[in-house]
């Protein structure tokens, strides 16, 4: 390709007016040079790099050139024209002649590199492609052909031989992701500045190859080498020793760590991760947690451990919608480059979509599940994960049919691309374990070996080794007896009595309104009661959580005689320790998680120092032997009766009544399978209709998940999509509405959160509540003049998504709604609960 041809087609607008434009040909080589570094060990590296070098071939054309020089609107985006050029008979024949193979194998890969702007090309073939080539012009055709011919000489070892269409479609997901990442890095003018067309393509590629490693290092995308030195200086517990010693298979692997709460599963996962990194099963890790709170807690732990996994400091990110509010994450961002501590550079922070590209990522499971939804840049997330060991903590939290299907598809795709994974769980049903294991095996091309061994605890590698003989860890809390409380009044009396005797107590409720009512009732009895739930602004929740951890955490003080009332946020997000626990009836898996907060830190608070004789879980529930209708739970639990399927609730009550205790680890598997397993016993006749309806809802959720997730076997072009993230939720639930709370200070509106910059204050001042309940109220008029001024610079989507609410000095927002910094969002007109 001659210099005049290179100069003819600009690839980027000049950074400053009058400066030279960066030629499209040079830009494509920039991106290919970056890809070479990212794909250093990939078996099809040359083929990938050749195709990636053609990713912006559509910029060679009259339409794109006029768009840059004259601002003419393109009827088709340049990346769609890329696909059109690569379908051109002459260009396609040239590629196949040099690469070998068939066009059925090449074209899925062409679509992958063309769709590098986050969505696959959708133009109709051949009609639209013919029209795009015609508008690009004859001269552009000749130059595009010459550029392809030149690239074939730059990567002469690129071959299609042996590649079939099915394999090509599978590879298209990975190729689309790495093309996007390489394009983002290669488009950075600070690393690849505009260069006049004075060098041949081969000469310029040498320049780009020298720049690429530096650019990737500054971006935080060159993972350091792993380190095998001991991670921890304490005596390992049984599961941790198993993780250190279990035999690792060749190739991609799935490990499932099942053990009781507090057994040290997280440290076991780190030990296993270190061995997997040293064995070449990944270049980093992503820790996927069920909630933002659990992700924040894991991030705090991980930042002190991950440095020991590598020979140099790794990049570390926090990935969820409120990551910018994490003090720990901000400290990592401010870490000086070159220090021994993990760091997150500005390039990774610039876009939330880049969070999964860091060496170590910690975040919500949602960020990973978006890799298998037909959304923009799903392939970017997928590629980021493919280089890592995917670690899913609290895997039992994904038992909902919708999320379970998403996770199965993710594990299949991850394994298909050579990735490995670790699942951590205390209460995973055997059926779900088998389903997830099978999905991974299918992706890895392994024959699935059914593992139905109910042994517990267990460290198993499906199709590989299993470790099920564990020594006792030493003195612990022992069995947790279970006792039923018949009514809320009994719960209040019990908590009041134990608090008066100096016990640290907790009541875990299923619904926020009931939690608020319980806290108020305890305070009315003179009992110091704290309250924590999800219907608080993040500003107040963080403040209360910090106070609760200082009181009830591992090193808590001033805990005697106090009661914490909370909702499901207490199940896994906070490492708290209580002497006495009351819980609303919930499915057994949830009760086991809740009971994990009872007598937790026995090394600091042995039995002799506790104000009660033994750990006892009091469960607020009606008599399971007396069921007259499907509203069996309502009189006892109020709105909390409808949070979980009533059949699971009833089975839990019966099983615990028969067992009399939670004996971890001995009877955990039996309890879980008796409620969640395929052989769970029948429910009373009065609950049969409710169970059938619940089964129908579960089937509907699974069906919706099947339609929502990508179709891997169809390849990126036909099986992916370009929808916005909000169009495909990662989890289903009742529709929520976001309220942004404000104060009126000296006649001016101010955010509820105080003492910080406006962006952070706005995020911390939001609270979410049921859209259906809020729809019954006359919320403040959003078109009021003071609101119009306040949100005048907001984009339309934010105006539609967020409702401004001024909290009066008395806490009132509108009739029926108020807010209190300690109690949360209060519905002062509480409707009668209904079965839904």
TrEMBL record:
One of its GO terms (molecular function) is metal ion binding. Residues 17-185 form the HD Cas3-type domain. PROSITE patterns: HD_CAS3, HELICASE_ATP_BIND_1. SUPFAM superfamilies: P-loop containing nucleoside triphosphate hydrolases. Pfam families: Cas3-like_C_2, Cas3_HD, DEAD. Keywords: Antiviral defense, ATP-binding, Helicase, Hydrolase, Metal-binding, Nuclease, Nucleotide-binding. The keyword Metal-binding applies. In the central section; belongs to the CRISPR-associated helicase Cas3 family. This is CRISPR-associated Cas3 family helicase.
């Amino acid at each position: 390709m001659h210099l005049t041809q290179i100069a003819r087609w600009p690839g980027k607008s000049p950074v400053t007016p009058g400066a030279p434009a960066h030629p499209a040909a040079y830009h494509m080589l920039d991106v290919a040079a970056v890809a070479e570094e990212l794909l250093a060990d990939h078996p099809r590296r040359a083929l990938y790099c050749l195709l990636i070098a053609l990713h912006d071939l559509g910029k060679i054309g009259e339409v794109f050139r006029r768009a840059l020089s004259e601002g003419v609107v393109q009827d088709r985006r340049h990346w769609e024209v890329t696909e059109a050029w690569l379908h051109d008979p002459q260009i396609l024949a040239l590629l196949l002649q040099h690469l070998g193979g068939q066009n059925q194998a090449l074209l899925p890969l062409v679509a992958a590199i063309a769709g590098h702007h986050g969505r696959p090309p959708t133009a109709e073939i051949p009609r639209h492609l013919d029209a795009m080539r015609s508008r690009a012009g004859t001269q552009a055709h000749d130059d595009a052909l010459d550029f392809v011919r030149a690239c074939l000489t730059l990567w002469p070892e690129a071959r299609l031989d042996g590649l079939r269409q099915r394999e090509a479609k599978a590879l298209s997901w990975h190729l689309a992701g790495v093309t996007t990442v390489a394009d983002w890095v290669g488009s950075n003018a600070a690393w690849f500045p505009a260069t006049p067309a004075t060098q041949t393509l081969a000469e310029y590629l040498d320049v780009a190859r020298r720049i690429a490693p530096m650019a990737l290092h500054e971006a935080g995308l060159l993972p350091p080498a792993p380190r095998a030195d001991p991670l921890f200086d304490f005596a390992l517990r049984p599961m941790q020793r198993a993780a250190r010693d279990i035999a690792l298979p060749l190739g991609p692997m799935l490990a499932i760590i099942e053990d009781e709460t507090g057994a040290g599963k997280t440290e076991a996962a780190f030990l296993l991760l270190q061995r997997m990194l040293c064995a070449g099963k990944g270049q980093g890790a992503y820790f996927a947690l069920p909630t933002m709170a659990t992700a924040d807690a894991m991030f705090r732990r991980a930042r002190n451990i991950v440095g020991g996994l590598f020979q140099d400091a790794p990049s570390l990110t926090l990935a969820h919608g409120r990551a910018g509010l994490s003090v720990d994450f901000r400290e990592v961002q401010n870490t000086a480059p070159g220090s021994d501590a993990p760091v997150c550079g500005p390039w990774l922070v610039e876009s939330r979509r880049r969070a999964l590209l860091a060496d170590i990522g910690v975040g919500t499971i949602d960020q990973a599940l978006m890799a298998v939804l037909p959304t923009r840049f799903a392939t970017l997330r997928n590629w980021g994960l493919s280089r890592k060991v995917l670690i899913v903590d609290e895997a039992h939290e994904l038992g909902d049919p919708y999320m379970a299907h998403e996770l199965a598809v993710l594990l299949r795709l991850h394994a298909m691309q050579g990735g490995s994974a670790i699942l951590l769980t205390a209460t995973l049903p055997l059926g779900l374990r088998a389903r997830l294991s099978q999905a991974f095996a299918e992706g890895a091309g392994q024959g699935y070996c059914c593992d139905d061994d109910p042994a517990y605890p267990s460290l198993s590698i499906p199709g590989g080794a299993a470790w099920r003989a564990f020594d006792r860890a030493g003195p612990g809390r022992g069995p947790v007896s279970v006792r039923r409380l018949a009514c809320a009044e009994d719960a209040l009396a019990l908590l009041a009595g134990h608090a008066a005797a100096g016990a640290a107590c907790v009541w875990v409720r299923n619904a926020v309104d009931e939690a608020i009512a319980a806290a108020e009732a305890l305070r009315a009895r003179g009992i110091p009661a704290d309250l924590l739930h999800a219907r608080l602004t993040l500003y107040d929740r963080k403040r209360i959580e910090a106070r609760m951890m200082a009181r009830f955490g591992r090193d808590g003080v001033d805990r005697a005689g106090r009661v914490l009332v909370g909702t499901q946020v207490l199940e896994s997000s906070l490492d708290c320790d209580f002497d006495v626990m009351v819980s609303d009836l919930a499915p057994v898996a949830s009760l086991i998680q809740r009971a994990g907060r009872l007598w937790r830190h026995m090394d600091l608070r042995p039995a002799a120092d506790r104000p009660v004789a033994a750990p006892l879980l009091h469960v607020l529930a009606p008599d399971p032997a007396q069921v007259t209708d499907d509203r069996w739970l309502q009189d006892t639990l109020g709105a909390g009766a409808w949070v979980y399927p009533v059949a699971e609730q009833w089975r839990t009550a019966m099983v615990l009544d028969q067992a009399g205790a939670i004996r971890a680890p001995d009877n955990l598997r039996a309890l879980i399978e008796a409620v969640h397993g395929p052989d769970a016993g029948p429910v009373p006749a009065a609950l049969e209709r409710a169970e059938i309806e619940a089964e129908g809802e579960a089937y509907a959720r699974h069906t919706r998940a099947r339609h929502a997730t990508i179709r891997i076997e169809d390849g990126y072009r036909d099986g992916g999509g370009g929808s916005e993230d909000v169009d495909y939720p990662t989890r289903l639930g009742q529709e929520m509405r976001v309220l942004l709370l404000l104060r009126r200070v000296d006649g001016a509106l101010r955010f509820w959160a105080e003492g910080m910059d406006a962006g952070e204050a706005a995020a911390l001042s939001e609270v979410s509540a049921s859209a259906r309940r809020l729809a019954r109220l006359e919320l403040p008029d959003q078109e009021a003049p003071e609101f119009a001024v306040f949100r005048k610079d907001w984009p339309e989507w934010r105006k539609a998504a967020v409702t401004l609410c001024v909290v009066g000095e008395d806490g009132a927002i509108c009739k029926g709604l108020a807010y209190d910094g300690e109690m949360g969002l209060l519905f002062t007109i509480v409707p009668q609960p209904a079965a839904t």
